Amino acid sequence: MYTNTNAAMTTASPINAMEPASAVTNTAQPTTSEDAEPEDPHLLVDEFERQQEQSCPLQNRVFEQLLQRDKTTKGLMLSMVLGQWGTKLVKFSIKDDPEQLVYYLDRQTVETWEVIRPRLPTRDVWTLTRRQGLEIGVMEDMEIDMDAITDMFGDPIQPAHWPLVNQDIPYIYAPFVVEGKPILSRTKHHLRFVSPPGVDLYTQLPRARNITVGQLKGLVAELMRQMPEYASQRKAKHEIKIGVGNSDSKRLADCNLLDRTMTVQTSDQRVIASPPAKAYIAVTADWKRGDHCRRPFTCNPGTILVEACTPLPMVRMILEDAFHRTRHSSGFVVTSFIWRCWSVEDNKSYVIQDLSTTLDAVQGTLCPIVYYDDLEMGLRCHRRPDAMKER
Question: For the chain, percent helix, then strand, then coil, each to nearest 5?
Fold first, then answer.
């Protein structure tokens, strides 16, 4: 186990992240058997040195850009170098994060790309110790299911280069940018809208341990557009108030808001006294491409608000309708629907068998898995059992 060292800062990197860079390549070196005649060793050394230079192609670019900067920016960049030199922390940010926060992870936990397990013990000592790995470290500390990681210029970093890159110049100057999906909490959190007309909302939270008050306000502003009670108001993030006296940069976990009902107010100063009469439950499905999906189409309608008293068959219709309203979804069809649900008490998932119940009667957090395929292939799969019966 290790200590979470996440911290937040809003200092942006002075390096231009939009300038294109040369691609990084990794070519395997030739090998020979013991009996075969080896190639010229000088050629192999030259080839190896050339590959080593290609593995870190941005050093010259950083110093070239440094010469083009004004004195203030140069001083800031040099102070970043001196402050980072010898540190045990690696900086990360999340792509398209409106808060532009920077997270610090211990270098030892992300030194390798994947988890390295210890080898079998020898007569002496263990030859290799277990390390966390970048993918697991980002998943646990930042709560991001990582798809890719780029450097300060937007160039993708290959797994083979990561052990060198994460502790080498110039990559230690600015945060690495993580791309991926936020991990949702397995529990539903209760938000009560106390501004008239008032509703109750039960929803999973993305990156529950790291989400800030400001990020939750942005999420609430998006969900309000799905509520007929508030859709016409079009409230902005700064018009929403959550709790009392909490700054936007403060994490919900530090405000002790995750384990109790969070009150939500808009710019309307009036407050309802009685509990709201209507409740919504946010449903976030896991959309997957089927085995017969030939076209490169990825669908994710996002979080859908459904009234708590809605029967489960109607919930499926609402989710499928959201699927068909997404862009480029024509020509695709939903082929399978699994009613997966997370049980908070047992900390494991199960499949709902009784579909005659309503959404608010489900014990746990509903996280259905939905498969979709090409329309033509989906029809063939449905017709195949009927054709077999006729034969």
Answer: 30, 20, 50
Q: Which of 29-43, 98-112, 188-202, 267-281 has the highest mean pLDDT?
A: 188-202
The string of pLDDT tens digits covering residues 241-270 is 997 778 888 899 888 888 889 999 988 778
Judge: domain 189-277, CATH 3.40.50.720. no
Q: Are 338 and 347 in contact (CB under 8 A)?
A: no
Q: Given this structure, which CATH class describes domain 282-389?
A: alpha beta
Cα-Cα-Cα-Cα torsion 32, 37, 42, 44, nearest 10 degrees, comes to: -20
Question: CA–CA distance from 221 to each of 29, 200, 211, 268 (Å)?
Answer: 54, 15, 15, 15
Could you tell me the pTM of the whole model? Answer: 0.70
Write down the domain spans for the chain.
57-181, 189-277, 282-389
Sheet holding 262-265, edge to edge: 241-242, 262-265, 189-193, 199-203, 279-284, 303-307
